[in-house]
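Hi X.,

You mentioned you wanted examples for the new student's onboarding notes, showing what a folding record looks like when two proteins sit in one file. Here is a clean example. The first protein comes first, with its sequence line followed by its structure tokens.
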Amino acid sequence: MASSCVLHIRQADRVDGHYPIRLRLRCPDQPELEAEARIAFALTPQEQEDLRWYLEDYLQNPGAVEPVQIAQIETMMRSRGEDLYRQVLTATPDTQAIWFAIRNQLADLRIEIASGISGAAAIPWELMRDPALDCAIALRVRAFVRVQSNPSLSFIPIPPLDDGRIRLLYCCCRPNGTDDVGLRAVANRLLQGLGEHRPRFAIRALRPPTYEQLQKDLTDAKEAGRPFHIVHFERSSSPAGTPRPAGSATNRWSC
């Protein structure tokens, strides 16, 4: 499978308690595969709070938590992720055909989740996992991104350039701290991708990479009349053999 293969998962608005899901797999020089599913999926309020706490509060202060509590939440995340996998990727012969076509070559796959704004947080796609795998599918693929199904940004004014340069805020999540790959090594991929256009960008790194600092930097930039044109999120990779938190299920996304 070529590295440009893309699995597009479109999540429609909920109807009668079910979300219509459409899958489309595109690979160069291969027939396009399509499938549909209707899933009944909803996190309870407690599950939503546990997930938020695990991904935000716990990563900032892991030493102040009982191991039993962590194990319970990670078990819930694994169970809900496997439930989502079964409802989507094993729902019909057509969805199974798509999964069989990609499951052994996930490292070369890009997954795009498309949804409306109202339903973007309804389904935690980053948790989806095949019970036969030892981690979430989002951590296995080359890229896992979310996009708006019907974007309409014409009403948003474009900030003026800073001396002709585009302002970019670079946010790199490093949940394993010093055990993660160095920030410079991860950022090099972004810089290499900009290539000859690198001088056109004014890049600021988010330090420390926390929700509080992100909110502060965005607010300060807006109040100064110099908001960012691009906010780029990226998770660093741990060295081989280093365990990663079960909740760090997002690879990279930009907005």
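Then the second protein repeats the pattern, sequence line and then tokens:
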Amino acid sequence: MSARKKTRLPDPERHAANCRICAHPSRDEIEREFCEWKPLTSIARERKISRPALYRHVHAAGLFDRRDRNIKAALARFIERGHKVKVTAAAFISAIQAYSKINAKGEWVDKNENVNVSRNTALFDRMTQGELLTYSVTGQLPEWWSSPTVTH
């Protein structure tokens, strides 16, 4: 589902013969980091390789499509850094919601749950921070939720 223009990949044998990344001892880690949405500039700087060479390699190896299917990793990075950077609450919650809707195959899966929030507002007030976090990430309500008379 990449918005990137589909272009023909270079000949793999020709590419491999001239590519410093293909011959790099950390090639697998470099490719994994790219597919986990680590910025090209950071990978290049840490591995002491040129950014243009890295870009040519990921293009030739067809890694953009693989990375695009791993959008969940980008969301996870954003969520992990939520406490370190200035992010609006809406952006943070939107990232968590999006993260929870992407399955292991990188597919968007809408989860339908019918909860009348206006009727149950007092119940949300009873939830602990941990229960609220679990609900925001997984959509799972606490066990006590099914009985509105339970005090928590």
